[in-house]
Amino acid sequence: MRVDQKTYSLSIVVPVYRSAEILPLLVRTVGEEMHSAGLDGRFELVLVNDSSPDNSWEVIRTLAREFPFVKGISLRRNFGQHNATMAGLNHATGEFVVIMDDDLQHPPSAIGTMVATLLEGYDVCYTNYLNRQHAAWKKFGSKFNDWVATRLLDKPKGLYLSSFKALRKEVVDEVIKYDGPYAYLDGLILDVTRSIKTVDIHHQARQDGKGNYNLSRSLSLWLKMATSFSVLPLRIASIAGFSLASLSMVFIAIVIIEKLRHPEIQAGWSSLIATILFIGGIQTLCIGMVGEYLGRTYLKLNRKPQYVVAHRTWEG
User: What are the transmembrane regions (predicted)?
Assistant: First the structure.
């Protein structure tokens, strides 16, 4: 769909992992949609191979030779979706940048609408899925992530942090200034701007294979969000510690009073053990949370890389 007669350039960044079979269809579909939008010669498709164990890099190299608009980047090891996306953003040259997944669940036909939204003056355009093609546990996880993001990142209510989004290059330039090893893209975007609009799209079924996000990866992403962009978990730990200390003082006073009133009362072994385990568990949780922050700070100070590029298709 032709969105505007104004001349502009567009970059489409796609992190790639275990998608060798889907990539040819993805490239052809994107090429056809961009041709329909009148963007021939004014767009690039940046495919970032996140050290995929299949032959995705060989496929990307072949597609780059066949389609001039394809730019391929291969990372030396698996850095994760958000870090791979950051690698793509650092190589994007368009005035507008679209980020999408590699499985064609994000319809390329929606790109025109997203760019039109940016042309209205918005900095960022997120997509909202009308019919999510995900497992039940993943839908629940997304709702939980949305609830946490609203409180930790001060995310506007109703904004779904979809991985299918479009950004102005000015926003991208600010986002890529972050060079830490634990990139959480949506947190970086919300730190830069609140000029955001959402458009509805139809979520498509995955064209091939299974999704790469399992429960452990989802938990890792949530922890990255929680500890990289907010001190709220530390504040909660402090409040919990203060509350438990206050509660313990109350219980100590009650025990002393009861002992004075009834000297025959025997100390309760079960209640004592339960109390110790409960307080010990809270203390361990709080110490672990502090350790998570310290560990990330340590790795940042030691310049743990966000990503490392091994090959680029335009370099041979």
Answer: 234-257, 269-294
